[in-house]
Prior knowledge:
The chain has a domain of 90 residues. Helix 7 packs antiparallel against helix 8. It is an alpha+beta fold and 475 residues long. It has a 5-stranded antiparallel beta sheet, with no helix packed on it.
Amino acid sequence: MKKINLLVLRAFAGPLVLTFLIALFVLLMQFLWKYIDDLVGKGLDWIIIFKLMAYVTITLVPLALPLAILLSSIMTFGNLAEHFELTACKSAGMSLQKIMRPLIICTILISMLAFVFSNYFLPIANLKMNALLYDVRQQKPALYIKEGVFYNGIDGYSIKIGAKDKDGKTIRNITIYDHTLGRGNTKVVLAESGSMVMSQDERYLILTLIKGSSYEERPGEQGRNNYPLMRTEFDEQVVRFDLSSFKLTRTNEQLFKDNFQMLNLDQLEHAADSLERKIADKRIEAERRISMNYNLVDSVKKPDQNNYDLNAQIGDQEILLFFPDHRRNMILNSALFNARNMKSIVNDNAEDIAHKSKNLAKHRIEWHRKFTLSFACLILFFIGAPLGAIIKKGGLGMPVVISVLLFVIYHVISISAEKFAREGVMEPFNAMWLSSAILLPVGIFLTAKATTDSSIFDKDAYLRVLKKITGRLKK
């Protein structure tokens, strides 16, 4: 019995690790394809890129792990069934549940580790990844001055180089506009040739200009509109450009720590309770402000006529007939002002409450996500294992197609339901557990069919049933 358990565990471990790494690689390539424009051409250090890829890889585990469990379970039991090892075990008196028992225990342990990972490690990885990704996206492109094109990447300067020699340092026909004074194109430097090098610490770009001229408009005397022009010719001039803005500056990670993706269960619960209290306080405040401004009738003095109907409705235009002519415009303006004021109060509070409600839904969604990841691993295993025993095909052919199809269905349902929850169409609990509730009966059904050696994927069985039906129709 122990040998069979070890055999099944070894058959499951290899495909699990392999498919998990493949899924992570595919998802990582998808991330790179999405953010390739923000990463390329900025001269990032390889350590920064390695850190970003490591953080991204950690955040992709919740997507890769369920897919890996589904695919590896199909492959494992497909291989065992294809090589008649399942048949040998069943002929020895073992049921499918006994054969699956070591993998069930293994999957439960993986699910528990997945919960610990999503609650303690994933928020930290999300925090570091988003902070680093924000800094990378804000980073300026690397310094690259092309021939014949003005380069405006250095703050306060516009540089144009007519030609660049093969050595990459010697440059010709140089034009530099200096805007550092904030008065427009008041200073320009022209040079026939020169050299362009970086300082040893790569903090400055050093241009050595040969045989050129400098033109500068100086501000005139106070109260006058004249701008004297100063022209200077030089044989050699050295210009230094500060490149400190091209270095990656790290943002304080504490600025991102309150985001719902960076919180664990306790923090999410505390943040959700705070949002609920804020929403309740906002509604009470809105009701109080509306009641204070709802003085449309009370602010108007009652007329002196004895036939005034106190029960007359505000919308009835005949009520104005009970007031003198000189007061009707005042009453209408007062009513219009109060109506607009109340409308503004209602709209502002409704927008604020809607924003807080969406933020609350995001926190509730993230709270349930901590549990749905672990539960998804169990459900997809109970779908994949009996499915592999039924189709009796191993390898990376049919199992990959079926597992990817099932995972796409699971993922589409999850994403759609989560979007409905964010928009307030569904409750976060119903949305986050919808995909699991749909696939759980599928797993139970497939496990029952695999236990009884059902041929639900045997085309010959369906052909036999079809022949019987057509035969009865002919009779």
